[in-house]
């Protein structure tokens, strides 16, 4: 029995397998339509979500399985004071696999240590978001055809943006990757992500506040939302929220084969005019997420 708490819980070979499986599902969904018959996915989301929860649930339905959903902490026994450990034990009695989002860093790990079913971290506070990284990897693979020799710009809230932390951890395992970290001083990448992942990989990275200056070098531009819910005061959020707004004008010096990604939801950081640009991949990225979650469910339930 395996849980996925961190993207590094999967080996590079397993990531390749998942990408190949997701691509096969995309080609022939019918082949997989009954694979999880009789199985149940529980989704337990103690923070807001649209894409992650619904794509997990859609993934399970597409595999012929069923879904049990705890929509919020307020509507579950967490409101009565039940611990994550106990809730995870309980859900193990009713479901075959659990996808869990929690505002506390490490909560899905605690759940995994106490559950008797696979637990998937669907986002823990400002820490990690491995299944978004699976969606991101499939997007990069389908749109760029490779994981190697890419200059990846990550822009926005690199401090609290958990999708950025997991994506960097994953991309550090491929050769020829360069990171361009674009953030205001207050929202720079936490030093632990640099010391745990970037520095040991030996990959080049630069930190800048200037998106336009670095635009021409980028193969991938990963925009992020300023994570309002993680700020300690509203004043700081209001000051920083519109630090970067991507517009068609700013994309003029960009490569023709750039891909523009965003885990979504978007607030102001990408103007809607950019949606028409063929390089905009963020809506496709959300669709790719469903296929990767199908591949992951099959793997964790050991269904072939
Ligand atoms: C992200 C998240 O929850 O971290 N959303 C998602 O799962 N696609 C990004 C965000 O909320 O900004």
Automatic annotation (TrEMBL):
Keywords: Pyrimidine biosynthesis, Transferase. Pathway: Pyrimidine metabolism; UMP biosynthesis via de novo pathway; (S)-dihydroorotate from bicarbonate: step 2/3. Residues 2-141 form the Aspartate/ornithine carbamoyltransferase carbamoyl-P binding domain. The keyword Transferase applies. Its EC number is 2.1.3.2. Heterododecamer (2C3:3R2) of six catalytic PyrB chains organized as two trimers (C3), and six regulatory PyrI chains organized as three dimers (R2). PANTHER family: ASPARTATE CARBAMOYLTRANSFERASE (PTHR45753:SF6), ORNITHINE CARBAMOYLTRANSFERASE, MITOCHONDRIAL (PTHR45753). Belongs to the aspartate/ornithine carbamoyltransferase superfamily. ATCase family. This is Aspartate carbamoyltransferase. It comes from Candidatus Avoscillospira stercoripullorum. The gene is pyrB.
């Amino acid at each position: 029995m395996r849980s996925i708490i961190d993207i590094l819980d999967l080996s590079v070979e397993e990531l390749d397998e998942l990408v190949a499986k997701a691509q096969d599902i995309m080609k022939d969904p019918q082949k997989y339509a009954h694979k999880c018959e009789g199985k149940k996915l529980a989704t337990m989301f103690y923070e807001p979500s649209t894409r992650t929860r619904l794509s997990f649930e859609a993934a399970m339905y597409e595999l012929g399985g069923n879904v049990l959903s705890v929509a919020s902490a307020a509507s579950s026994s967490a409101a009565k004071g039940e611990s994550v450990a106990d809730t995870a034990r309980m859900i193990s009695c009713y479901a075959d696999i659990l996808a869990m989002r929690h505002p506390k860093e490490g909560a899905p790990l605690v759940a995994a240590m106490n559950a008797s079913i696979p637990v998937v971290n669907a986002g823990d506070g400002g820490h990690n978001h491995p299944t978004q990284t699976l969606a991101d990897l499939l997007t990069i693979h389908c749109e760029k055809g490779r994981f190697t020799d890419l200059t990846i710009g990550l822009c926005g809230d690199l401090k609290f943006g958990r999708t950025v932390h997991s994506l960097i951890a994953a991309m550090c395992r491929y050769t020829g990757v360069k990171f361009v970290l674009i953030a205001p001083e207050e929202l720079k990448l936490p030093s632990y992500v640099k010391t745990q992942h970037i520095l040991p990989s030996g990959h080049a990275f630069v930190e800048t506040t200037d998106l336009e200056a670095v635009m021409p070098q980028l193969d991938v531009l990963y925009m992020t939302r300023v994570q309002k819910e993680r700020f300690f005061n509203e004043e700081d959020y209001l000051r920083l929220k519109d630090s970067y707004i991507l517009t068609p004008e700013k994309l003029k010096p960009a490569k023709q084969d750039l891909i523009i990604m965003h885990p979504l939801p978007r607030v102001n950081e990408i103007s809607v005019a950019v949606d028409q640009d063929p390089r905009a991949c963020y809506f496709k990225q959300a669709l790719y997420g469903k296929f990767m979650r199908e591949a992951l469910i099959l793997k964790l339930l050991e269904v072939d």
